[in-house]
Design brief:
The chain contains 16 helices and 15 strands. The protein is an alpha/beta fold. The longest helix is centred in the C-terminal third of the chain and has 20 residues. The protein binds nicotinamide-adenine-dinucleotide (NAD).
Length: about 425
């Protein structure tokens, strides 16, 4: 039985913790640490915790010494390293949310501390566990497409996702949340590039991008500042808060309605009142907020063996989508995660043929937006692998140990530097 304490009882930590309900014989939640009393009480009720198992912060928990095998750290981005360091020192193994650090210096500090205290950290790069990527990784490892030549990934962040998280939501400014949009959203995809390369180091990174659409000059003519209070064009607007939040009250609910957590089952009328409050960013026009993170960014990476890779993050798309295309010496694999299908293609030398292809349909449907925390089926598979690692089993091919997860983050930090300084960044220089 592996025991764990929830540190930062937000939406994400609760998803991983729910593995304990599915497998009570393997995993048990034995504590919570969160300054938010409401969330503390909610976890205590859900997992039958006593007051002496509830703590007001990671730091307070760490000061008690080790009282469980592990922690699930689901605090926000800029708290990951400061909250994890004392917990490592206290002797905990850690399941840590991404981005696990907000700078290259922090990433290295965490890595050094894990080594010093001989602790294991697994990063919540859930996409490695999504069957779509897992199945492709297995084929690449088995040599199905020969030597990798080039990898292309893209994430299309939909109009409702970008509005809820990167314009009106808590990742709207790097100086507030600690992360750039690339790191907050696409450190997963950069991790996949590094993972598919199986330990070959990324060497050079270049990146372009910016915030070019969600800014005042593109606001619809005559638009107001607050959708439900003073906007005469709200009913025709693609980013109307009413259409995004009230017409779809369950979409991104854990972000949009976080301010109503004190009310059990808020009514639609209470939600509408909340959307009329001027101190609520979800009431605001998306073109007139103080967001400063990019709405597009392209990254180009060269690995030590000459493999090139690109990632494109594009925000405001009609359909949410993650795309992957890996080109090898003998064939290629191409697919869209949200379709739950990919195609394996090979050179075909037979007269009258050019290539042959097979479509693999994984038949996983339901959570196509990612809004409900599924990540193509990755979330709970990752929790299961964390438990398995702590049980002493051999790491799986997905296993996101810190050692194996650092390269993707380094690519992201270099990409942001490259974009900001308009230059090629060598990983050896940072
Ligand atoms: N793996 C993924 O695909 C994925 C998806 C979405 C978000 N995330 C990441 O998950 C993390 C958590 O996001 P969320 O929306 O669940 O967060 P959240 O804001 O809902 O929860 C964070 C919790 O941490 C608590 N907290 C603050 N200081 C603390 C401290 N010192 N000790 C203990 N607890 C403390 C807060 O009170 C809050 O309850 C973020 O870093 C986010 O980027 C990951």
């Amino acid at each position: 039985m592996i025991t764990s304490i929830i540190v930062g009882a937000g939406h994400r930590a609760m998803v991983y913790a729910s593995y304990a309900k599915l497998h009570p014989d393997k995993f048990k939640i034995v504590g919570v640490a969160d300054p938010n009393k409401l969330r503390q009480e909610m976890v205590a009720k859900e997992y039958g915790l006593t007051p002496d198992q509830c703590f007001n912060s990671a730091e307070e928990l760490a000061a008690k010494g080790k009282i469980a095998d592990s922690v699930i750290n689901g605090t926000m981005d800029r708290q990951h390293v400061p909250t994890t360091l004392p917990l490592l020192k206290a002797g905990y193994d850690v399941l840590l949310e991404k981005p696990f650090a907000i700078s290259e210096a922090e990433a290295r500090e965490l890595h050094a501390a894990a080594q010093k205290y001989h602790r294991r950290i697994m990063i919540c790069h859930v996409l490695r566990y999504a069957p779509f990527y897992y199945e492709i990784k297995q084929r690449v490892l088995a040599g199905a497409i020969g030597r990798i030549i080039n990898i292309q990934t893209a994430e299309h962040v939909s109009y409702h996702h970008v509005a809820s998280c990167f314009i009106r939501g808590k990742w709207h400014r790097k100086d507030v949340c600690g992360s750039s949009a690339l790191m907050a959203k696409c450190c997963h995809d950069l991790d996949l590039l590094a993972w598919f390369m199986s330990g070959i180091s990324p060497e050079k990174v270049v990146s372009f991008g910016g915030l070019h659409y969600f800014c005042r000059k593109y606001a619809p003519e005559n638009s107001g500042e607050y959708c439900l209070l003073d906007c005469p064009v709200e009913k025709d607007c693609l980013y109307s808060a009413r259409k995004h939040c009230l017409d779809h009250p369950d979409r991104w609910a854990f972000y949009v309605w976080a301010g109503l957590e004190n009310i059990e089952n808020p009514t639609l009328q209470q939600k509408e009142e909340f959307l009329k409050r001027k101190d609520n960013p979800y009431s605001r026009c998306v073109w007139k907020l103080d967001n400063n993170v990019v709405d597009r960014q392209s990254v180009l990476v060269e690995f030590a063996d000459g493999v090139t890779a690109t990632h494109n993050m594009v925000c405001g798309t009609s359909r949410p989508m993650r795309k992957l295309h890996i080109i090898g010496s003998h064939g290629e694999i191409q697919g869209i995660m949200d379709d739950s299908k990919f195609t394996v293609r090979h050179i075909d030398l037979r007269p009258g043929h050019e290539y042959s292809e097979t479509e693999i349909d994984l038949n996983i449907h339901g959570d196509t937006t990612g809004a409900f925390g599924g990540h193509g089926g990755g979330d709970l598979r990752l929790a299961a692998d964390f438990v398995s690692l702590l049980e002493g089993n051999k790491p799986s091919i997905s296993c996101t140990t810190l050692d194996d997860s650092i390269n993707g983050h380094l690519i992201g930090f270099c990409a942001d530097q490259s974009m900001e300084q308009n230059r090629i960044v060598n990983l050896s220089d940072i």
